[in-house]
Amino acid sequence: MEKLTEKQAFEAMVLFLEGFYQRTQADEIGGLLSDLLMAENGTTADPAAWQDWMDCVQRVLAAKQAVSK
Predict the structure, then answer these.
(1) Rounded distance, CA 64 to CA 69, Å?
(2) CA 48 to CA 54: how far, in whole Å?
(3) Residue (of 48, 25, 28) closest to 36 by Cα position
(4) Would you say 31 and 21 are in contact if contact means Cβ atoms under 8 Å apart?
(5) What does the pLDDT average to over 41-65?
(6) CA angle, corner 16, sides to 38 and 54, nearest 5?
(7) pLDDT averaged over the chain?
(8) Where are the domains of the chain?
């Protein structure tokens, strides 16, 4: 399986959430998707959303390193 960059993984997560939203019309997911919209300059509509994403990426990577030790 090909590895994704952080941005590609973010885009995949957004696609997953968009599919979920299309099926459920859940207001909470719609609001989240609004925050995750990428502007032309590469930032998210809610600037904290990208930082939250990167924090999660770091947590996953740290957990993977801890398991491999």
Answers:
(1) 9
(2) 10
(3) 48
(4) no
(5) 93
(6) 50
(7) 94
(8) 6-68
